[in-house]
Design brief:
The protein is of the alpha+beta class. It is built from 12 helices and 10 strands. The chain is about 40% helix and about 20% strand. The chain starts with a helix and ends in a 7-residue tail after the last helix. The mean pLDDT is about 90. The chain binds 3,4-dihydroxyphenylalanine (DAH).
């Protein structure tokens, strides 16, 4: 090996480059992609014992540098520029960078966050992969309870059950377990349900979840907050609270908005059930809270007067280009 390297060294040293043909054959012989002598030495490195490999690596690299030096020397003496640079044509028009736009659901998300930050809410995120306790049990939805069927679930593992969260209410549990009240919290994110027949016609949609816990929170605070949200989004709008059932709130209500002379359901809400507070070690004798959850897709549809909810995820650039968020 040493002899071989000496031979190559000498060859490099004494080779005289007189023409560009010489240059090419010199470069090809030593650094050619397949048959270059130095290229082959590099490839053979892996067969050399691990102790010698590093040293040889350095030596071969030096050979390569010698070759490059010689080539560079010849080129600069003869005023030959790099071929790549020669190909550069300054008259070709540049590539234009197209300005992107923000997805309508993200615009809506940002608007809702802005609205709630103004009234002292904190924005938090939570995981999309949840365990059974955070998604169901702690929210007062025990196993075998029929209300589990309201949300057809995608399970990733069984026993222990790990699933794609079916609603953002799991974030309530995560937050309440970690911090002590009072707090006002908003979260927005993707949720997953196996619902091919629902109006979402999709296995994924977005929800906003809000909750407020303090010593004197009442249903009228909830009503006022919902009213504030809806008027901030729509200007004047007619809404109604309709009694409903959710395992994690008592009393519970659904909120409908008058749209095209029809009542459209937009959110669920209620006073947080004392059982839920107990599950996260908050004393329901001292603290009260309200919570709400709303679907982002439908709300966005109404604001932009769109007809079909599936359009959000078609990735049609003609649709997506139309949206701008005014900051
Ligand atoms: N988690 C409910 C759902 O996905 C929505 C909801 C209803 C959230 C009432 C709440 C609430 O926080 O209080 O259907």
């Amino acid at each position: 090996m040493d002899k071989k390297i000496d031979k190559i060294k000498k060859y490099i040293k004494y080779f005289h480059i007189k023409t560009s043909d010489d240059l090419n054959s010199f470069r090809g012989k030593l650094l050619g992609k397949k048959k270059g002598i130095i290229t082959i030495l590099f490839k053979e490195l892996k067969d050399i014992s691990i102790y010698k490999r590093k040293n040889y690596g350095i030596i071969i690299n030096e050979l390569k540098k010698e070759v490059q030096k010689k080539i560079f020397h010849y080129k600069s003496k003869n005023n030959i520029q790099n071929e790549k640079i020669l190909k550069y044509d300054p008259t070709i028009p540049g590539k234009s960078i197209e300005l992107g736009s923000i997805h309508p659901l993200s615009i809506m998300k940002n608007r809702i966050i802005d609205i709630f930050l103004k009234i002292g809410f904190t924005y938090v995120d939570g995981p999309e992969i949840e365990d059974d306790w955070h998604n169901f049990t702690a929210l007062n939805i025990p196993i075998y309870h029929p209300s589990r069927d309201m949300q057809d679930t995608f399970f990733l593992y069984k026993n222990p059950d790990i699933l794609l969260r079916t609603h953002t209410s799991s974030i309530q549990i995560r937050y309440m377990k970690k911090y002590s009240p009072p707090f006002r919290v908003l979260s927005i994110g993707k949720v997953y349900r196996n619902e091919t027949i629902s109006s979402h016609s999709n296995f994924m949609f977005h929800q906003a979840e809000g909750f407020y816990i303090d010593k004197k929170v009442s249903f009228s605070d909830l009503k006022q907050t919902v009213h504030y949200l809806i008027t901030s989004l729509f200007g004047k709008a007619k809404i109604r609270f309709r009694p409903s059932y959710f395992p994690f709130t008592e009393p519970s209500a659904e909120v409908d908005i008058s749209y095209n002379n029809k009542w459209l359901e937009i959110m669920g809400c209620g006073m947080i059930d004392p059982e839920v507070l107990k599950n996260v070690n908050i004393d329901p004798e001292i603290y009260y809270g309200f919570a709400f959850g709303l679907g982002i897709e439908r709300l966005t549809l109404m604001i932009y007067h769109m007809k079909d909810i599936r359009i959000y995820f078609d990735n049609d650039i003609r649709f997506l280009k139309q949206f701008k968020y005014e900051f």
